Amino acid sequence: MEDKYLWLEDVLGENSIDWVKIQNEKATKAIKSHRLFNDIEKQALEIFSSVKKIPFITIEGEYVYNEWEDENHLQGLFRRTKIEDYLKPNPVWETILDLDKLSQVENEKWVFHGFELSPDESRALFFLSPGGSDADIVREFDMLKNEFVNDGFFLPEAKGSAYWLDKDTIRFVRSHGENAITDSGYARLVREFKRGEPLVNAKVIYEIEKTDINVLSKQIKTDKQTSHFLGRAIDFFNIEELIFQKGAWQKIDLPTMREDFKIVANQYIIMIKTDWRDFKNGDIIAYDLDSHTSKKIFSIKKNQSISEVKSSKTGIYLVIDEDVKSKFYKFTIEKNGNWKQLQIELPDNGNISNLETHYQHDKFFVSYSSFNRPSTYYYGEGDKIICIAKSAPSFFAHQDVIVDQNFAISLDATKVPYFLIYHKDVIFDGTNPTILYGYGGFEISMKPYFSNTIGSSWLERGGVFVVSNIRGGGEYGPDWHQSALKEKRHKAYEDFFAVAEDLISKKVTSAKHLGAMGGSNGGLLMGICYTQRPDLFAAINCGVPLLDMYRFHKLLAGASWVAEYGNPDDEIDGAYIRSVSPYQNIKKAIKYPVIFLDTSTKDDRVHPGHARKFAAKLLEYGHPFYYYENLLGGHGGASNFKEFAFLHTLNMCFFWSHLK
């Protein structure tokens, strides 16, 4: 099939950018004229720039590190303080790197992607992204002098990772260099780089096939040892790993379909995602690195999933979700080799997240929030909560918000949970402007969260917000995800439609007041809503989306998602993909809801051509749409909080314009 808009895949082409600027001007001019625009943007900026928000942290030894943004630090500060000082009401922070100053001096809008400390913590590798793309550069930084090291380690812009082997050697996985990239656009070589040598002389120690997704290299530290791993991602969900033991690389005898966590007492903690030997799909097991035997730690029930796993000096901490609501546990290994489970008390019916631990001790931080309760950041030791470290402010009357969990019945009779969030004064009479949010992919769970921006711009003004937990996500463990892969993908879409129909049947809203919202894989879901069920929705917000499923595997990281969606070039997979691909299934004669497509020029994960081409075809057919493309921002759609505030305001005013 001829694609007359293929030219829009030329990301930085002059014709493409000119087209983008024209669409941006039309969309922003129309949406900014809404009477609520200035108020909502002002509120969003106040929320994002608040100095009272929680500074979430990363623990490294006795220090905690934080990336901070406010109205004076748009790109942010990278800073640190001691744990004991962080627990004080007003910690004294040491600024390590001012991203705004660096951006001004170097004329590049740098976005901080993280850091890796050297073994003695005197140096660090800083990962800096130009404009927010997934790709970044790596630069060596002196943590004692708080300055970049002249002639220090430097790796050019690419996707990948790097870490220290010793003070003069780094090991890196980067998608740069000749023959160094897989078909998915990720690295295929593991290399070692000695201080002072040319980068081209970096020694290749491991390589994979171009048809693999990505090469893997990592080290896991405990208080007694450091273990080194190499491996390959065969596809998005299957990995093979080697461990360095007794002077040689040895294959690990574990199922390839698994998720790796940490090491405790020489036990490699993983979750298996398939039945294996005496273990079941979703089991957390400990693999002994000496005896090569495995023991079960925990088995999830049908209504459970594992949300977070982190290790400490004496055990592991698990966040376990039951019907998409969190509970918190610590597991420790006893002398007989069995694992002891202790629940750590936190509030019910919400989301436990931002778990942070360290292998050198048993101190931890963890947050709790819900749709109508702001985040509280707790500090604990061992299996006890010690105190509240920080509390987030509320910018709306959250105590007036009601949260219900309901279950819709999908086409195959599966019960699909969703959260219904609304102001106490809302009456279910079928007229409420309602946003239904969905994702449904890659085993990612949509959990309760507190949002000042949604609260102030939508809930407090009488809107209803709904978060669906459709199949394809991880809300009920690996099975929930695997039940909507490839040719079974339609089950995720049927789940979403079932939630929409349930909202209408309960008179929460009606089709002319119901909107749908999703991004990335959720953007594909929005494209499906648009082309398959235009009768259900009045307005659709489609963010950083996949929409041309004929070509997704040929654009940027798309080849890595074949395990999720199927292969368009395969006879069986291709037939299903062609039947649902939103871009090719737009019809001229059908009346569609109005759609707002937003994406980013710097998105190097999901190609902006998906959204561009979809909008171009809508323009050709005369269907109503808005299109906005941020010239920076990466896959998140924005590179700083001002851009996020602007995009949020566009989204909310779009819905207020078409759902009221």
Strand content: 35-45%
How many β strands by DSSP?
Answer: 37
Contiguous runs where pLDDT drops below 50 for at least 5 residues: none
Report the helical percentage.
10-25%
User: Biggest sheet, in brief?
Assistant: 8 strands, mixed
Distance between the termini: 40 Å
Mean pLDDT: 96
Order of strands across the widest beta sheet? 30-31-33-32-34-35-36-37
- Can you tell me the overall shape? globular
**How many helices does DSSP assign?**
12
Structural class, by secondary structure, is alpha+beta
Q: Compute the gyration radius: what is it?
A: 25 Å
Give an overview of the whole structure.
- The strands form eight sheets. This protein has an eight-stranded mixed sheet, with helices on both faces. Strands 5, 6, 7, 8 and 9 form a five-stranded antiparallel sheet that branches.
- Helix 2 packs antiparallel against helix 12.
- It has 660 residues and is of the alpha+beta class.
- 19% of the residues lie in helices and 37% in strands.
- The chain is globular.
- It contains twelve helices and 37 strands.
- Strand 12 (189-194) and strand 13 (203-207) form a beta hairpin.
Give the helix/strand layout.
Blueprint: H1 14-32, H2 37-48, E1 58-60, E2 63-70, E3 73-82, H3 83-86, E4 94-98, H4 99-106, E5 110-117, E6 123-130, E7 136-142, E8 147-148, E9 154-158, E10 160-166, E11 169-174, E12 189-194, E13 203-207, E14 214-221, E15 226-233, E16 239-245, E17 248-251, E18 258-264, E19 267-272, E20 284-288, E21 294-298, E22 304-311, E23 315-322, E24 325-333, E25 339-344, E26 351-356, E27 363-370, E28 373-381, E29 384-391, E30 401-409, E31 415-423, E32 434-437, H5 452-457, E33 464-468, H6 478-482, H7 490-505, E34 514-519, H8 521-532, E35 539-543, H9 562-565, H10 571-580, E36 594-600, H11 609-621, E37 625-630, H12 641-659
Helix pairs in contact: 2-12
